[in-house]
Structure to design on (473 residues):
């Protein structure tokens, strides 16, 4: 099964296309005045006032002659996010000049055109758009998010640890990256906590390691380390989840999907950086060989961990990945994970929680997320709560002895595996849309992909530094 499918929502520039006008309320009078009188009367009679999402098809001698979309005050990509399914099936459109950003419009159109139809016998054909000039970045990011969404939406029987690792290899091959799939004894030795998480499944765990450098990146180019939690299905292990909590656990590899999507966008843009991507590909199952509550695990960093709860497995997966990433002294380590329900309880599904040991990088990520409509919200690494991870038999426990501040405690656990002096950003995300909204169809979501790309661009490329600084400030 191939995951990196092309964007079929964009038509060739030479295709015959219908005009799509996008209008704001303050521009309605001028827009109507520029139309032929019959069309102006038709729109006025239809009550068109350019309210957000108000779409009207324009009639012509041959049928539909064009369309007008109201934007309201919405400047986000989502203003164009449901057009692919509201415009007539199979039609092709071109954007007419207006008071909006054409590249942002193309991004919104592409994100809204996505549907997971791999198992549909006769999927509906969406309308298509001729991509405007300057939309190359939008297309790269949309394809990265389509990739992340496809990975998350694929059922766990078809996307296990091996298939997730193969997806990394597929993306790496497309961009000339070196990919190493670590399994067996090498995994046990190098990533012992991760191996312990996956030991209960009949589907063997793996670490997918991708290395790439841009065509103009020298040996001193900044090294960006991306790490992703790739738990392809999470039963909770012996601390078994209730049935209702397992219904969406195919999305527990959403962090892996996000960092792989970000890596794809970075490689497609050919940034002058070095990239090291590590994804922990595992399944958390119940069997005679599964880890148990009270087991003590080894880790790559040498710290011992008591398993207080087998359903807190994601932090064990990331612990070894983060330790390995820090060994190479990167300019920045970024990890993504569907790590805690506590983050969702605090911030809801649309705001991934951001933690960082570097205030400058935290500010860069927050500003970048806002700028590209891919928001993040910072929570604190509150040191006092670190005492809750104490264990009487090991260096630390993987959970606290209480139910308070779960997202903060999980981040503090991960921080134990970050080398002193290494800048680190941790993103605890939901990776799912509970319902369809413009540009965000129900199902898997590549949260933080665009925020990561925008933050790295601002912090590494725009600063003009080739790796000397560890933070953008």
């Amino acid at each position: 099964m191939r995951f990196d499918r092309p964007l079929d929502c964009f038509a060739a520039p030479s295709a015959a296309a219908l005009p799509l006008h996008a209008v704001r309320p303050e521009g309605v009078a001028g827009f109507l005045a520029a139309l032929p009188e019959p069309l102006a009367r038709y729109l006025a009679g239809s009550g068109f006032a350019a309210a957000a999402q108000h779409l009207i098809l324009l009639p012509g001698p041959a049928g539909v002659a064009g369309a007008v979309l109201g934007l309201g005050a919405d400047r986000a990509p989502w203003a164009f996010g449901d057009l692919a399914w509201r415009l007539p099936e199979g039609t092709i459109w071109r954007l007419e000049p207006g008071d909006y950003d054409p590249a942002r419009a193309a991004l919104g159109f592409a994100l809204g055109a996505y549907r997971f139809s791999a198992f549909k016998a006769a999927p509906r054909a969406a309308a298509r758009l001729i991509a405007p000039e300057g939309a190359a970045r939008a297309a790269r990011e949309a394809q990265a998010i389509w990739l992340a969404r496809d990975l998350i939406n694929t059922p766990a029987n078809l996307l296990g640890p091996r298939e997730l690792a193969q997806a990394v290899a597929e993306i790496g091959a497309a961009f000339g990256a070196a990919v190493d799939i670590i399994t067996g004894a090498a995994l046990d030795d190098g990533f012992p906590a991760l191996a312990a998480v996956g030991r209960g499944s009949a589907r063997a765990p793996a670490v997918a390691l991708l290395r790439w450098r841009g065509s103009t990146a020298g040996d001193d180019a900044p090294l960006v380390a991306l790490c992703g939690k790739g738990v392809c299905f999470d039963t909770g292990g012996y601390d078994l989840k209730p049935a209702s909590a397992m219904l969406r656990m195919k999305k527990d590899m959403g962090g892996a999907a996000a960092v792989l999507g970000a890596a794809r966008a970075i490689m497609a843009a050919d940034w002058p950086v070095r990239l090291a991507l590590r994804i922990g590909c595992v399944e958390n199952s119940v069997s005679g060989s599964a880890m148990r509550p009270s087991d003590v695990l080894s880790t790559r960093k040498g710290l011992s961990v008591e398993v207080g709860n087998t359903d807190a497995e994601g932090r064990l997966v990331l612990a070894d990945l983060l330790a390995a990433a820090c060994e190479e002294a990167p300019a920045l380590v970024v990890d993504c994970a569907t790590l805690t329900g506590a983050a969702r309880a605090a911030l809801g599904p649309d705001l991934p929680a951001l933690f960082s040991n570097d205030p400058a990088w935290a500010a860069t990520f927050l500003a970048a997320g806002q700028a590209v409509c891919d928001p993040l919200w910072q929570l604190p690494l509150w040191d006092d709560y670190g005492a809750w991870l104490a264990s009487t038999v090991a260096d630390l426990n993987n959970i606290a002895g209480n139910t308070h501040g779960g997202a903060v405690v999980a981040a503090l656990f991960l921080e134990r595996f970050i080398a002193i002096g290494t800048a680190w950003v941790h993103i605890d995300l939901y990776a799912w849309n509970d319902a369809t909204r413009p540009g965000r169809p129900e199902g898997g979501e590549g949260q933080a992909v665009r925020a990561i790309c925008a933050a790295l661009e601002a912090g590494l490329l725009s600063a003009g530094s080739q790796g000397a600084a560890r933070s953008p400030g």
Notes: The two ends are 43 Å apart (CA to CA).
